[in-house]
Amino acid sequence: MVRKTVILLAAGALVLAGAMVATAQYFGGFGNLLESFKGADAPDPGPLPAIKLVDAFPKLRFDLPLWFGHDGTSSGWLYVCEQDGTIWRFKKEGESKEEFLNLKDRMASRRARNNEEGLLALAFHPKHAENRYFYVCYSMLAAGGKPRRDVLARFTADNEGKATDLGTEKIILEVEEPYGNHNGCSLLFGKDGFLYASFGDGGSANDPHGNGQNLSTLLASVIRIDVDQESAGKAYSIPKDNPFVDRKDARGEIWAFGLRNVWRMAFDAETGLLWGGDVGQNSYEEIDIIERGGNYGWNKREGLHDFKGGERAEGMIDPVAEYGRDKGVSVTGGCVYRGKMFEKLQGLYIYGDYQSGRIWGLQYDAKEKKVKQQELLAHIPGASISSFGQDPQGEIYVCGHYRGTITRIEIAD
C-alpha cells in the first residue's frame, strides 16, 4: 500500500515565482488552521471540516505543474501540464509517467519569457475517445513578424492515444498580448459542447489600455466558441446565442467581460455554474460565478470596491467572495467537490491562494444565489497552489507549483 505523505510545510517556507519574494510578515501572520473567513452578507458559518493535502503520487514529481485532470474517457489516464511545455500522463497507481505532448521546442525558454507565460491550459474534446482531439493554450513571444500572443490550438493524439505529433497542430485562435503577464487562461468544455476560454487583460498594471471594459477585444474576457464548426474564415464558429453576437462594436466570441486575469475556471457538475478565480491588482482577490453577458467591473472595480476613481456602472456583477492582502496575494480558482469519499465536503467550492497557501471552502445556494457559509479549511505555506483539478470520480487534487507535487484533498484527522 502506498504510504500517504501529508504535505505540511513551515510557515516561512514560501517559494514564489521569478524574482518575487514574500515573507510571513508581509501576509500579516498566518493564523490558525480553522481561522474563519466570512464573505459579504454570509450568515455566521457552522464548522466546516479542516482538510489536508496528501501526496497522491509519491513516486512522481513534475516541473512547474499547473494543470491536473483526465481525458473524459474510460481509459483511466490522468494528465499533468508543466508550464515549460510538457504534458505527462499516468495511471492512478502513479508508478511511472509517459510523455503525451512536448512543446518545449516551439515555446520560449523559461529564461526568455515572463514567469506568467508558458503552457497554460488543457482541455480534452468531449468526444476524445473517438476523435483523439485535445486543446491547449500556450504563450508565444514576438517573432517572425508576429506579436507576442496566446495561441489556442488543437492537437490530435495518435491512434493508440499515447503520444502526439506536433505536426497535427491546428491553430484555432491567437490573442495578441501587449505584455508578458496576465495571460490567464482556462480551457473548459461545457455541457453544451462549446469551448470556454479565459484571457487576462493584456498585462502591465492597472489595465493601461482599458481592455476590461472594451468589448472589441478578447482580452479581459471569457469567450465561448464552437470548435466543431468553422465559419467566416475562422477555425471555429460563434454560437448564435452568445450575448454580444449581434453587436457591431463587440466581439461575438465574448461570454463575459470586465475580468482582470481569471486563473482557473471550473463547472459545477451538478448545478452547471461556471466558477472563476480572478486575480486582483493591489488589494483584493475575488471569486466569481461567470454568467452569460456578465460585466465583472474591471478596471472600474476591484472586488467589491471602486478602483482608482472608477465608478460602478449599472449591471456590474459583484464577486461571490473576496479577500484582501492580509489573506493572500494571488487567487487560484478551484472546483466544486462532487466526489464520494468525503460527504462533509459535498457541494463545497474549494479554492486557494498561490502565495499564502490558504485554502477556503465556500458553500453556495444556487437557487437563492447566496453564500451560505465559507471558512478557511487549511493553511499550508509553501504549497504554491497553481491549480486545482479533479479525477473522474470528482475527487479534488492540487498542483504544487514549486515542489512539483500533485496532492489530494482529504479531511484532516
Report on this structure:
The protein is an all-beta fold. The protein has one domain (51-411): TolB, C-terminal domain (Neuraminidase), CATH 2.120.10. The protein has one helix and 26 strands. The strands form seven sheets. Strands 1-26-25-24 form a four-stranded antiparallel β-sheet, with no helix packed on it. It has a four-stranded antiparallel β-sheet with strand order 2-3-4-5, with no helix packed on it. The protein has a four-stranded antiparallel β-sheet with strand order 6-7-8-9. The protein is globular, with a radius of gyration of 20 Å.
Q: In terms of topology, how is this protein built?
A:
Elements: E1 51-55, E2 65-70, E3 78-82, E4 86-90, E5 98-102, E6 119-124, H1 128-131, E7 133-140, E8 149-156, E9 170-176, E10 187-189, E11 195-199, E12 221-225, E13 254-257, E14 262-267, E15 274-278, E16 284-289, E17 301-302, E18 305-306, E19 321-324, E20 331-336, E21 348-353, E22 358-365, E23 370-379, E24 385-390, E25 396-400, E26 405-411
Antiparallel strand pairs: 1-26, 2-3, 3-4, 4-5, 6-7, 7-8, 8-9, 10-11, 11-12, 12-13, 14-15, 15-16, 16-19, 17-18, 20-21, 21-22, 22-23, 24-25, 25-26
